[in-house]
Design goal:
- By secondary structure, the chain is of the alpha+beta class.
- It has two domains: 7-119 and 239-256, Butyryl-Coa Dehydrogenase, subunit A, domain 1; 122-237, Butyryl-CoA Dehydrogenase, subunit A, domain 2 (Beta Barrel).
- The protein contains seven helices and eight strands.
- The protein has helices at 7-34, 39-47, 66-79, 81-101, 104-115, 231-238, 243-248, and strands at 121-124, 140-144, 147-158, 165-174, 180-188, 194-197, 210-221, 225-227.
- It is globular and about 55 Å long.
- 44% of the residues are buried.
- The structure holds flavin-adenine dinucleotide.
- The site of flavin-adenine dinucleotide has 16 residues, from strand 1 and strand 3.
- Flavin-adenine dinucleotide binds at residues 89, 122-126, 131-133, 156-158, 205, 210, 256-257.
Length: 259
């Protein structure tokens, strides 16, 4: 079995390393000390195609696959854990659910600007009552006509202040035995009723933006639902293939959270 990278991947690794050494490493310490998110740097990474590495060329991605993306994550993490954390959050948990499960219409609207590198994405599972215990969420998405009305608060959301969209897990109903039905819904973060705050003073990865997002009577058209009726858990399980990317940039995560 051949475990060597292809010529294309070797070239990518070399390119991202050079970029990270030249553009990220020199400012990494300062960004971390000042807890400052480098939005301009992400614009440059977007122009270079790094935000679209694994996504289909049909929707503006590079079509280079998961390994290419993991190589980029590892090289970025060599220079800055904070930048790498925001990078993996926007590409994988932020964008992948739409790439994997979105309708063609949702992909055109949401995936394309992300894969082309113009925008950033976030992912919202964690709440006061839900972390490791993902089913503990309390956010409600009540169906009224052809809309969902969202109420609840998501905590510890990476890229909260800079993402254009978030895919949230919300309760869309209950089974006859009273179990929650949890669905995934894409919500543009400029929708009325959304408030983003930054209550965290992290110990590490401080250049990665982390915020709390409150949804108060946020109206979302039904067509923004990407996985209905507990499809959310299948979504997360299928996206588990993305888990290794966090390991690529994971060495100091325990320091990220001030306890
Ligand atoms: C920097 C940062 C960025 C984040 N970004 C996001 C994001 O973008 N989106 C998002 O949704 N969330 C995000 N999170 C939240 C993260 O996903 C949660 O912190 C994580 O799921 C753990 O949940 P918790 O903090 O509630 O800890 P808990 O679930 O309370 O766990 C605390 C400890 O108890 C242990 N534990 C829990 N259950 C058990 C059990 N049954 N048996 C044994 N041990 C157990 C855990 O391993 C852990 O060590 C982020 C967190 C951080 C620190």
């Amino acid at each position: 079995m051949d475990f060597e990278f292809s010529k294309e991947l070797v070239a990518l690794k070399k390119e991202v390393r050079a970029f990270a050494e030249e553009k990220i490493r020199p400012m990494a310490d300062k960004l971390d000390k000042e807890a400052r998110f480098p939005r301009a740097l992400f614009a440059e990474m977007g122009k270079r195609g790094y935000l679209g590495l694994p996504f289909s060329e049909e929707y503006g991605g590079k079509g280079m696959g998961t390994l290419a993306y993991m190589i980029a994550a590892e090289e970025i993490a060599r220079a800055s854990l904070g930048v790498a954390l925001s990078y993996v959050a926007t590409v994988s948990i932020g964008t992948e659910p739409i790439a994997r499960y979105g309708t063609p219409e949702q992909k055109e609207k949401f995936l394309r600007p992300l894969a082309e590198g113009h925008e950033l994405a976030a992912f919202g599972l964690t709440e006061k009552t839900a972390g490791s215990d993902a089913k503990g969420i309390e956010m409600k998405a009540e169906k009224v006509g052809d809309e969902y009305i969202l109420n609840g608060t998501k905590q510890w959301i990476t890229n909260a202040n800079y993402a254009s969209i978030i895919t949230v897990a919300a309760i869309t109903g209950y089974t006859s035995s009273g179990e929650k039905i949890i669905s995934a819904i894409v919500v543009p973060l400029n929708t009325e009723g959304i408030t983003v705050t930054s209550p965290y003073d992290k110990m590490g990865a401080r250049s990665s933006d982390t915020g709390e997002i409150t949804f108060k009577n946020v109206h979302v058209p039904q067509k923004k639902l990407i996985r209905a009726r507990n499809g959310w858990f299948e979504t997360v399980a299928k996206c588990a293939k993305w888990r290794p990317h966090f390991d690529c940039s994971d060495f100091s995560w325990p320091c990220a959270r001030r306890v």
